[in-house]
Structure formats: C-alpha cells, structure tokens
C-alpha cells in the first residue's frame, strides 16, 4: 500500500514540480474553492499552502510557468469558520501572510470573501475572494 502511494506521488511529481518536501501539480480547469480542495484530496494532496516567503515565491513562479503570467489560483487558506481568522486546511492559524496591500487593503471582502487566492499578476500576493468563484489551482503533495 505504501509503495503504491510513493509511486503515485512520484508520477505526480513527474507531471508537476518539486520544492523542498513538496510536489506541486497545477490544475488549469477552474473550480470553486470547495471543488478544488476536494479534487486535491481525491488525488492524495491538498490545495497548495505556502508557509514561507520562499515557498510562496516558488509557487508563484510555478503558476506563471504552468498556468500563465496573469493566472490567479486558490490556495489552502480561508476564514470561513471565523471572520478575519485565516487558517490553513487543518484549521491551524497561519503565521505567514502575503496579502496585497499596495493597491488594495487585502483581505477586504468581509463575510462575502472567505477564501484566499494567489495572483501571479500581483507577484504572488494574496487576495480574498468569494469561495464560489471558479479559479485554477495547485495541489501539493508531501514527499515521503
């Protein structure tokens, strides 16, 4: 069973890219936040969730190369449970944040925008969006 998982993750990495202890795989078909998250989970991963500036920069570069320089993708961060309290998909508060604050004061959507998106156009900065919007996304898989 473990061998099959390792082989599957390896084949995913062959299609995507590796960074640190993660494999990233872009999905160009736009989906709403919940569908995108479910799709990643069905493949054995989660929505990509950058934990450092370096990870965010790497993800942004990968998005620009795999999906296009003007792409915007869902990332695994939301404040659905408690407005203004941004958490990852495990429900843990995030310590790294890269909200767009130059042209807009993100997150600015209040209770209407509870899901985070990374914008390649904005050099990897984050925006809060309505979770029902449809965006491409990147799944991340742990390399074990």
UniProtKB/TrEMBL annotation:
<protein>
    <recommendedName>
        <fullName>C-type lectin domain-containing protein</fullName>
    </recommendedName>
</protein>
<dbReference type="InterPro" id="IPR051663">
    <property type="entry name" value="CLec_Tetranectin-domain"/>
</dbReference>
<dbReference type="InterPro" id="IPR001304">
    <property type="entry name" value="C-type_lectin-like"/>
</dbReference>
<feature type="domain" description="C-type lectin">
    <location>
        <begin position="19"/>
        <end position="140"/>
    </location>
</feature>
<dbReference type="InterPro" id="IPR018378">
    <property type="entry name" value="C-type_lectin_CS"/>
</dbReference>
<dbReference type="InterPro" id="IPR016186">
    <property type="entry name" value="C-type_lectin-like/link_sf"/>
</dbReference>
<keyword id="KW-0430">Lectin</keyword>
<dbReference type="Pfam" id="PF00059">
    <property type="entry name" value="Lectin_C"/>
</dbReference>
<keyword id="KW-1015">Disulfide bond</keyword>
<dbReference type="InterPro" id="IPR016187">
    <property type="entry name" value="CTDL_fold"/>
</dbReference>
